[in-house]
Amino acid sequence: MVDRIRQHLTHDIIPFWKSLRDDEYGGYYGFLDYDHNLDRKAVKGCILNSRILWFFSSAYTLLKDESLLDEARHAYEFMTEHCIDKTYGGIYWSMTYEGDVFDATKHTYNQAFAIYALSAYFEASRDVRALDLAEELFSLIETKCKDKIGYKEASNEKFIEAKNDKLSENGVMADRTMNTLLHVLEAYTELYRVGRDIKVKKCLEDILSLWADKIYNPELKRQEVFFDNNYRSLIDLHSYGHDIETSWLIDRAVEVIDEDHKLCDRIQPITKALCDKIYEVAFDGHSLAYENDRGKVNTGRVWWVQAETVVGFINAYQKSGELDTKYLDAAKNCLDFIFDHVVDRRTDFVTGSLDADDKLTGKAHNGGDSEISSIIKGTEWYYEVTQDGDPVKNLPIVEPWKCPYHNGRMCIEIIRRMQ
């Protein structure tokens, strides 16, 4: 398993994302469609850039390949020179391809991913400026994105609360979400791990209590997803992918902060219950369905859900003392499904065709033409495949949410855990 994953990471995912580097305007290109047409003028999401910064930083820490640190530095420079608001603080939602502000929304989710990325970059580079910026964003979240009840969602550039349309789905408009809280916890976990600030640890302990009291539903053994301002659930929704992801991210947080093991007795039975329930209701022996929305199961096999399934089941296997081999078998079977069906094998492709002047051009997703400067190496994953493994066409290979965070992290986690 480990050799196969290492090969995929180093020969497929890393070369692909290196090829998406924009050396003219900074950062990484923001859109590649299903047919491998690259739009060099697409909006660059700051979440996408943060996740790429996290990925190359973490890959360098694992593999010690200096070229990966150079990619991380490239992403870091784009973040600090363009994505950070120098006037009001915080990170914007998205930039134009040239690095100007496109969407000035300040979302707590986005601030969290910047912290996550900066913490990883500090670990890789030992550049204390990255840690300082991560700590600044931590203070910003705690002072501007939080109230007495919990963490808020969207704000405008001056941190005046705004409509949470970016993290609301399934026909509801949520005041608070499980997803934002989860990734604040994820970010703070990494910030505490590399910085050991006691204030961060205290916030993590508070988040774990909030999660156990308000997010986790002990009767249904699942998380609720969308909430009103008082953490009342708005919809009967079981998000299979988020539950399996949460099961190991919460365990990671407890592992990092719980030096005296006081949290284990309360939290780890919950994460075990989450994973057990997912195995029971959502896993078909080879892959994981997406969600159950008011009794209707979405059977699509979305890329990030499959990646988190592998890590979640390996975590459950290891937490059992390597006694519960059904989870090891499930992880291996899901990995087989990923390699057989989810990985896009159309490799080393040219994104476009030669025009009369022998310039490489491709059709942009906004309807125009954009000049393409290089051949894209390696390969990525399809956005979604059916339960039988057929690709769902017309969904992009790269877009503001589609990046090497989930699948790259799966590779890094499994190599670290099992090598």
From TrEMBL:
UniProt KW keywords: Isomerase
Pfam families assigned to the protein according to its UniProt record, in alphabetical order: GlcNAc_2-epim
Gene3D superfamilies reported for this sequence: 1.50.10.10
The keyword Protein biosynthesis appears for this protein: no
InterPro entries: 6-hairpin_glycosidase_sf, 6hp_glycosidase-like_sf, AGE/CE, Cellobiose_2_epim
Enzyme class, first EC level, given as a word: isomerase
A GO molecular-function annotation: cellobiose epimerase activity
Biological processes per GO annotation: carbohydrate metabolic process
EC number: 5.1.3.11
Catalytic activity as recorded in UniProt: D-cellobiose = beta-D-glucosyl-(1->4)-D-mannopyranose
Role this protein plays: Catalyzes the reversible epimerization of cellobiose to 4-O-beta-D-glucopyranosyl-D-mannose (Glc-Man).
Family to which the UniProt record says this protein belongs: Belongs to the N-acylglucosamine 2-epimerase family.
Protein known as: Cellobiose 2-epimerase
Organism of origin: Butyrivibrio fibrisolvens
